[in-house]
Amino acid sequence: MRYVSTRGGPATSSARDAILSGTAPDGGLWMPEAIPQLPAERIAELAELPYPDLAALILSPFIGDAIDDQRLLDLCIEAYAGFDDPEVAPLVPLAGRHWLLELFRGPTLAFKDFALQVLGRVLAELVGERPLVLVGATSGDTGSAAIAAVAGRPNIALVMLHPEGRVSEVQRRQMTTVDAPNIVNLAVRGSFDDCQRLVKQLFAEGVGDLRLGAVNSINWLRIAAQVPYYFAAAAKLNAIEHPVAFAVPSGNFGNACAGYVARAMGLPIERLIIATNSNDILHRAFTTGLYERGEALATTAPAMDIQVASNFERMLFVADREAVPEQMKALAENGRFHLTHAQRDLVDARFSSASADEPAIVAATRWANERAGQVIDPHTAAGLHAALHSDLPHDVPIVTLGTAHPAKFPDAVAAALGERPPMTEALQEMFARPELYEVVDADAEAIAGHVRKLAGPSA
Ligand SMILES: *Cc1c(COP(=O)(O)O)cnc(C)c1O
Q: Is 200 an active-site residue?
């Protein structure tokens, strides 16, 4: 399997180098040259497989000969052993045609664990002799999931930036209470957009001759490792006979992109319903064809408080690759671009969208509680809002992706339901541990200094 850049640059990459490098040299994102296909009879059999076996089977063509199949299976078994439900991604009935796929059973209680638990192990497998320094920015959930995945791994270090005071206390403590010599947490005096800009600057300018790597969802393996749960849920609902729809709480479009890849591999997905919160750039792009950056608003679903959905570039590429370099240039220069006809056709055929403002998030949280006895978090509630308002025929089952555990967002859940969700045991233990982090200015040179220090005297 070869990888090509969404910006059309001449460089291609092996799976190994695409995963280790994060982005292509022309600034684009790596995409597989062709999407592998899974025939219908194989998909029907997946319902019988344990989750790690299913994950290894789906990932295998994307990893190619970078890791052999038996070893990949071992890594997937290890990656999902730490989840607190034997099904890994349990599918729970809500009411009527609505289902909830619980993707928050991993160590940090958000769906990011699905990809990062695999990515951490795959990076350790591929890193070789030369140390790898991962640099990432987080609005909350990526940081903790990445730290949990790489803490203590030899030859890999991680510098994680979060905006000071703008992640929830649970999210911050999940990052800062991990005591490992290869992890540094930096609280940046600025916004999440500042953090992301600083990371991009470090990648562009380099830090000495250090080898830098990405853990954000610009890394292709983050997307690939989210494809298997779409297959798992759809196989359980017998999608080969009756196609299903998924409602996807979206920010950077990584999860939705994985759903699209599942569809392109042959999974009968009737529709991917993209849910945004009040930061509705994707919903606007889908309904008007104009992709235009606005001001990021703070909501109760902070992991979706994003103005530029990085992985949307991958969809644009699939639909009309020639247009992408110009569109990305226009976005950088003017903050906007128009989708082409081919891109709009693909979007109309595969996706629909809805935006959930704060009252809609509260209403969906209450619906789940009253109709199904389920306590859901605000991100999941945004997804459920979109599912409940879908215009799909009534015989199409809709699976809402549960992207975070309600205990991660206790204040928002309490505001909707009048009662705080119980804390998990792991969270209780976490609150007793000391925090380790440094506060820094939003300055690339200061960050680079921390990267060098962590990398050690050889840097
Ligand atoms: C990251 C995240 C999202 C958004 O996912 P994308 O892949 O960025 O679209 C939604 N909900 C939660 C809880 C998250 O952590």
A: no
Describe the strand order of the beta sheet including 91-93 as a list of residue ranges.
91-93, 98-102, 398-402, 244-249, 269-276, 351-355
Q: For residue range 28-67, what is the model confidence (pLDDT) as tens digits?
A: 999 999 999 999 999 999 999 999 999 999 999 999 999 9
Among the listed ranges 155-159, 165-169, 240-244, which one has the minimum average pLDDT value?
165-169
CB-ligand 1 contact for 255 (6 Å cutoff): yes
Is 250 close to ligand 1, i.e. is its CB under 6 Å away? yes
Q: How deeply is 283 buried, as exposed, middle or buried, from its count of CB atoms within 10 A (0-12, 13-18, 19+)? A: buried
Closest ligand 1 atom to residue 254 Cα is 7
CB of residue 281 inside a 6 A radius of ligand 1: no
The residues with which 157 forms a beta bridge, in sequence order, are 133
On whether the CB atoms of residues 253 and 229 are closer than 8 A, the answer is no
User: Which residue spans of the chain are classified as CATH 3.40.50.1100?
Assistant: 91-108+226-417, 112-219+425-459
Summarised one tens digit per residue, pLDDT across range 388-404 is: 999 999 999 999 999 99
| Band of pLDDT at residue 329, cut at 50, 70 and 90 | very high
Residue-level pLDDT at 160:
97
Q: If you take atom 1 of ligand 1, which residue's CA is the nearest one?
A: 303
Atom number in ligand 1 closest to CA 403: 13
Q: What is the CATH number of domain 112-219+425-459?
A: 3.40.50.1100
Q: Which of 251, 134, 244 is closest to 199 using CA atoms? A: 134
Q: Return the closest-CA partner of residue 378 out of 357, 399, 396.
A: 357
Ligand 1 lined by 303 (C-beta under 6 Å):
yes
Q: 303 C-alpha to center of ligand 1: Å?
A: 5
Q: How far is the CA of 120 from the centre of ligand 1 (A)?
A: 19
428-438 residue pLDDT tens: 999 999 999 99
Give the C-alpha separation, 285 to 185, whole Å. Answer: 35
Q: How far is the CA of 190 from the centre of ligand 1 (A)?
A: 21
Mean pLDDT for the chain?
94
Nearest protein Cα to ligand 1, atom 7: 254
Q: Calculate the alpha carbon distances from 433 to 52, 175, 177, 249, 429 in Å.
A: 32, 11, 6, 31, 7
pLDDT digits (tens, 9 = 90+) for 359-383: 999 999 999 999 999 999 999 999 9
* Domain 91-108+226-417 in this protein, CATH class: alpha beta
Burial class (CB in 10 A: 0-12, 13-18, 19+), 154: exposed
